[in-house]
Amino acid sequence: MLGVDPPEHTRYRKLLTGKFTVRRMQQLSDHVADITTTHLDAMESAGGPVDLVEVFAFPIPALVICELLGVPYHDRDFFQQHVAAAVGGADHSMEARGAAFAAVQDYLRGLVLAKRNAPTDDLLSDLTGTDLTDDELSGIGTLLLGAGLDTTANMLALGTAALLTHPDQLAELRNDPETTDRAIEELLRYLSIAHTSARTALTDVELDGQLIKKGETVAVSIQAANRDPAKFHEPDTFDIGRSAVGHLGFGHGVHQCLGQQLARVEMRVALPALVRRFPTLRLAVPVADIPLRHGLDIYGAHELPVTW
């Protein structure tokens, strides 16, 4: 779906758009809140220091995706473990990631068949009533995992790090719920974890005096766009007081992120809940020692040690 143009792209997009409306995603808010509370309770019981990626940032979107796809409860531990390995931490080899990814794909193929035989109240079951093939359905499941789990998990981790290193902004978010939406949009702009995209010209086109010939591919830096001083005042400053409307954190055009409203719901619920539950939350290592993810499609942190 990410690599095709209309009309092929339109066929998939049209089937999925209605599943990701603002209203439908907001209906998930209570479920996201329950998952968040459960993980915050576990953090509080265990005590610090903890790896926030492992205990908070990854499992919350993973369980939300499980709910969306209709993964049965008895399979969710297996599913999360293999997805975590497929995404790949600092201790996972490419071979291990490939094997885990294959296991996830096999699982999703089986899940599609199960939904065809006994539909439940979830996105995959809804889509079995369309003309999509089993391969297309399992591919959509894989896409939703790749696009909706790794991204949100790293936004929750790096978003927390950004707030902890800007205590004035953190205090504002903690004390004033009305700042939440602005804070989330500013984090999406400031961090730009889906950092690079690419487009190929289908015909000769001139952009700002630069001729791009048919067939040439342009690498697009989303990070550079979101730090454009012509669009954002003092763009290298993290400021939840600004209006970050118009950022390209979710891309642009027909390929703009389908699940952006779901990501916003998860961030709006989880981040304020974390900083309010643990008012003394702080990094457990120097900023320079956070193991960051380099060379991957999604920027982020392999681990985020915190304590309180």
Automatic annotation (TrEMBL):
The keyword Heme is annotated on this UniProt entry:
yes
| Gene Ontology MF terms | heme binding; iron ion binding; monooxygenase activity; oxidoreductase activity, acting on paired donors, with incorporation or reduction of molecular oxygen
Matching entries from Pfam families are given as: p450
**UniProt KW Iron-sulfur keyword:** no
The protein's matches in InterPro entries, at most eight in alphabetical order, are given as: Cyt_P450, Cyt_P450_B, Cyt_P450_CS, Cyt_P450_sf
CDD domains to which the protein is assigned, alphabetical: CYP105-like (cd11030)
Q: What is this protein called?
A: Cytochrome P450
Organism of origin is Nocardia flavorosea
